[in-house]
Structure formats: structure tokens, C-alpha cells
Design a protein that fits this description.
87% of the residues lie in helices and 0% in strands. It is mainly α. The relative contact order is 0.18.
Length: 84
């Protein structure tokens, strides 16, 4: 569940950055809240995982400090390797 949400958040972030540089303000006003909501859901998901002891608090810190998607993808890859 973490990977698809992180990829969606990454696509929204890249789209938001591109729209802010190239596109009209209308695209930014739509993409900004979508990316923000995705980030909040992503942080909530990793907080839930940390409180239920699925993983450590380092995952929450990594996601929060990296801006969301990048940290979530790194953490998900590490967690997947550890699970196998």
C-alpha cells in the first residue's frame, strides 16, 4: 500500500513543480491541494505503521523529512527486502 501511494504523491509533486514553472496558476491551484492531501495521507499511513509496530519511527522521520514520496519509496524498498 505504501508504494502506490508514494508513486502517486511523486507524480503529483512532479506535476505541481512543472505546472508552477510552465503552466497557468489554475493547474497549480488544483495540483497543490492534491499533492498536499497525498502527503498527509502518506504521513498518516506511516504513522499508523509505526504505532502498530509494523516498522520503526525512523520510517516516519524519513518520510516527513524527505518531503514524502522519496522517503516512502526508500523505506518501502528496505522494508520489502527485510520481509523476504
Amino acid at each position: 500500500m505504501l508504494r502506490p501511494l508514494a508513486l502517486l504523491d511523486l507524480v503529483l509533486l512532479v506535476s505541481l513543480l512543472g505546472a508552477s514553472r510552465l503552466g497557468p496558476d489554475a493547474a497549480v491551484s488544483v495540483l497543490g491541494p492534491l499533492h498536499g492531501a497525498g502527503y498527509v495521507v502518506l504521513v498518516g499511513l506511516v504513522l499508523y505503521g509505526a504505532t502498530t509496530r509494523l516498522w520503526g519511527w525512523w520510517v516516519v522521520a524519513l518520510v516527513a523529512l524527505s518531503g514524502g514520496a522519496a522517503g516512502a519509496l526508500v523505506a518501502e524498498r528496505w522494508l520489502a527486502r527485510r520481509a523476504t
